What we know:
Radius of gyration: 36 Å
Strand content: 15-25%
Number of strands: 16
Structural class: alpha+beta
Amino acid sequence: MSARTMPCDPHEIGSLFLFEKLSPEQLGRLCAEGRMERFDPGPVYVEGDPATCFYVMVEGTVVLSRRVGGDDVEVSRTSQRGVYAGAMQAYLGDRVPQTYNNTMRVTEATRFFVLPAQSFADIMQEWFPMAAHLLEGLFFGSKNTQRAVGQRERLLALGSLSAGLTHELNNPAAAAVRATATLRERVGKMRHKLAVIAQGSYSREALASLIEMQERTAERVAKAPVLTPLEASDREDELTDWLDDHGITEGWRIAPTFVQAGLDTDWLEQVAATVADDILPGAIGWLNYTVETELLMDEIDDSTNRISHLVDAASQYAQLDRAPHREVDVHELLDSTLLMLSGKIGTRVRVVKEYDRSLPAVPAYPAELNQVWTNLIDNAVHAIGTNGGEGTLTVRTAREGDRLLVEFRDTGPGVPESIRSRIFDPFFTTKPVGEGTGLGLDISWRIVVSKHHGSLQVESVPGDTRFQVLLPLTAPETAPDTETEATTTAETTTAEESA
């Protein structure tokens, strides 16, 4: 940065709209405490540096930019006299971090009236005490409102997720309860059957053969193949015929259970060859109870595993027992969010995962990224719902240079070009009244851009809408401030509009 100090003329700065109502004495004090500086083309200050000065442009051209991911994105360019930027929040003192919220550079030789931040703060408090109090109230009130509404957005999402999780947990829990009740009944019948067998005239060799066949049948159940409906139907017919031919009553009731267990007529022939004809019906009944018991235990095992998996997913989603900032595998976060939202997604939306599993872990705030995934998936499902209710949600990950891409693609009607530039604005929503707060995308943008130094963008045509999140593969040199980063957009609006 090359700058040259020049004499300060009270009449010149008094011609700027910011100071035109000041008295000669006040203009004199400004010139006494401030200075006039001429900057050659190049940077004047850099985003993130300590905010030491308040700048008012007298002549030249100024450009303001914000850092998005690894890029500097231009947000304003003007040659209007009197535009201002820099330490505009100095009057708030140490209640907020006093750093530059943007980068300012000039494209030609440009003159500024430069006022030290402390002088600016003192003058604001002394000359405009009422305005300073109003601005403080506006700043902190807006911040608190955003925090409260953001919290409401998170609670709404949590309520939706809780309802979905309850529904998802209820299904396997109910299945386990039903299977347990049926298992109790089957075990009771097995005990009765065992008593009948024990009272019968079965030889020691016949009982040993029957027990061996029972063990082999249980092993067969564990390795049962998956059949198509047509294959299962054909095998049921074959087994029913075999059972009828061998004098087994109600073979049509037993056949579906045997088919589910992977048994066929060859297996039944082995049973018939092992036991005598007079005990074959009893042996088949005994094996039927064995098969039913094994299938019921498998159902209980599947149900309890499903419950455990859902609880693990909920823990992964909430990140309650994890460090707030750490290196994470985004695929684990995506899978837990998709599972948590499976009730809302429903069966009419097909979910396709196109993951690049070779991607490395990235430094992130996982709980907040899960909130981003929740908002984007919820919007995609809602969009598909407005387009007939059926469609496809594709979640893709890939590497793009030094950043990791997470893309959510839906087959909904698309985002009209007329509103595309507004979808990240606070309180803007296309959902019906009562269904959306208009903060989901705004919060997502703040989390991705401000907190993770990434980018969030959208590409949309009817039938193909893509929200793309780009996250740095490595952590920034300085960690973001968790309290203030989320409000930088609102805090810098005045400066950027002025400049």
